[in-house]
Amino acid sequence: MMQPAKTGHSARAHWGLRAPMTFLNHGSYGAAPKVLLQKQRDWQDRLEDQPCLFINTELPGALRRAADTLAEFLGASPDSLAFVENTTGGIGAILRSIPFVTGDEIVVTDHIYNAVRQTLHHVCAQTGAQLRVVTLGLPVSGPQEVAAQVCAAVTGATRLVCIDHIASASAVIMPVAEIVAHCRAQGVPVLVDGAHAPGMVDLDLDALDADYYVGNCHKWLCAPKGSAFVRVAARAREGLHPLAISHAYGSGFPDEFHMIGTRDWSPALTVPDAIAFHQQLGGAALRARNHAVAVEGAALLAERLGTQAGAPDAMFGAMATVELPQMLYSPEPPERPTANALKARLWDAHRIEVHVMPLAGRLWLRFCIQAYNERSDIEALADCLCQWLETAKESRA
Ligand SMILES: Cc1ncc(COP(=O)(O)O)c(C=O)c1O
User: Fold this and answer.
1) b/e sequence 168-178, b meaning 16+ C-beta within 10 Å
2) Of 4, 5, 10, 221, which sits most exposed with the smallest number of CB within 10 A?
3) All domains in the chain, ordered by first residue
4) pLDDT tens for residues 355-375?
């Protein structure tokens, strides 16, 4: 279908990313290659060619086949998987299907994604459940320490553990296998937020066997936006409903999730092509290559800035965090507005797109390595920050 692509800057021709710029933020919203956007448009053309015939006759089977292909890629049994619009919606559907009551606790960490935290606040306000936040801080020392801290927060009152697979704010890969195993032994359900995982790390969702696993295909699998999924263990399907109830109400999981009113399913229908594109770029070898460039980049940045990485190498995938020197922002507080101002300055002055995150009382650079990035992108970022540091030192001398 597509030409085999190399990695590095030559691979960037597959994407419509604007030049010149250093794009080190694939993680926020992904970026879909041109060829996959064309595949998506082909599906839209098929829909508009005869909308009634397509939606009533062609779509159900095509959607199921796309979901089955994704399930195979993720190591999930086909009946455990359904598409949703995005991770936020998938997690919303799950949280709003669980009958929490006053006194229930939901265990989360301080690395949780803000939109998920907000959903949890809403659910707690509606049901009387409470959040129990485990403070991991940053840097984290290792997977055993993280697992021990999360598991220690699980008590008889815990109704759910909601844990990131790969946290957005810290880029840390959480020890989800250990946490799921512990919780299963305690009879406590686990919801894994895998927004960043598909295409970044190897997955075997049936082996992990979390009660609920939600992930995006538009980030690291590069599918068009609007292609996420929920994987639900058989024991957790009873009472689970999508956010939009429609004709299939009562027919259970996964069918209810694929009938939610009229919508454009072309992003989900393009997922098999996205998987094929990912495999052509190397599949597991691409994931390993992106990880290698990311940890090398973290070491380079930490050394040149005189700071530290947010975690040991093995706890990073294709994203990493490195502490920003306080000299670059003090006396401003290490909070979101300061982070946003630094991020905007990098873009305005140098056309570098990279995330800056406030966490644990400091600011952190969060950078991402996709097929189209190379070490020189990190060097460009380091050069620019070192220049800023020199200027800051001179102005304080
Ligand atoms: C950890 C995590 N969870 C959830 C989300 C939400 O994903 P979406 O915006 O696709 O719903 C993100 C998005 O970046 C994320 O990083």
Assistant:
1) bbbbbbbbbeb
2) 4
3) 9-17+282-396 (3.90.1150.170), 49-277 (3.40.640.10)
4) 999 999 999 999 999 999 999
* Residue whose pair of structure tokens reads 């997977």 in the numeric block: 143
| 143 token code pair | 């997977």
Binding site membership of 111 for ligand 1 (Cβ less than 6 Å): no
Whether the model clears a pTM of 0.85, i.e. scores above it, the answer is yes
Ligand 1 atom closest to the CA of 216, numbered from 1: 10
Could you tell me which of 284, 300, 285 has the C-alpha nearest to residue 367? 300
What is the position in ligand 1's atom list of the atom closest to the CA of 167?
A: 1
How far, in Å, CA of 132 to CA of 157, rounded?
A: 10
Can you state the angle between helices 143-152 and 176-186, rounded to 10 degrees? Answer: 30
* Model pLDDT, residue 19: 86
* Ligand 1 pocket member 353 (CB < 6 A): no
Average pLDDT, the chain: 97
Cα of 113 vs centre of ligand 1, distance in Å, is 7
For residue 1, pLDDT beyond 80: no
